[in-house]
Design goal:
alpha+beta, 3 helices, single chain
Length: 121
């Protein structure tokens, strides 16, 4: 429990709900379901979702490494596979949490919307 008597998960759920509301005002952003979660998509591509009280976002691999090195973030794994362009970010303490998560979601939306298709082979 936090000092306010709330769990970190409740704080994360509340922050994520606000983030979703804000992101849905952006062009081509919609809610969907994938990976057993409600997900935010831009033009049909997933860019963010909430998983076990953490914001999961898709960003360039270099940015993912920066967030992990700074602390408060861990790699996202799917099964046993570490996803190099996905990161799980804890709720930062204090009022900065909402702004930080919103900024990361915006960064992820822009990245995914502008990402070139990956070659399949």
């Amino acid at each position: 429990m936090t000092t306010r008597g709330r769990t970190p998960r409740a704080d994360a759920d509340e922050l994520y709900a606000g983030l979703v509301k804000a992101e849905l005002t952006q062009p081509d952003v919609a809610l969907g379901r994938a990976l057993q979660n409600e997900v935010l998509q831009v033009s049909g591509k997933i860019f963010a979702f909430l998983k076990t009280g953490r914001l999961v976002v898709k960003l360039p691999a270099e940015r993912v490494r920066e967030l992990i090195a700074a602390g408060g973030a861990v790699p996202f794994t799917s099964g046993v596979r570490v996803m190099k362009e996905w990161v799980c970010v804890d709720v930062p303490p204090g009022a900065a949490g909402k702004a930080f998560w919103c900024a990361l979601a915006g960064e992820a939306r822009h990245y995914v919307a502008g990402a070139a298709p990956k070659p399949r082979g």
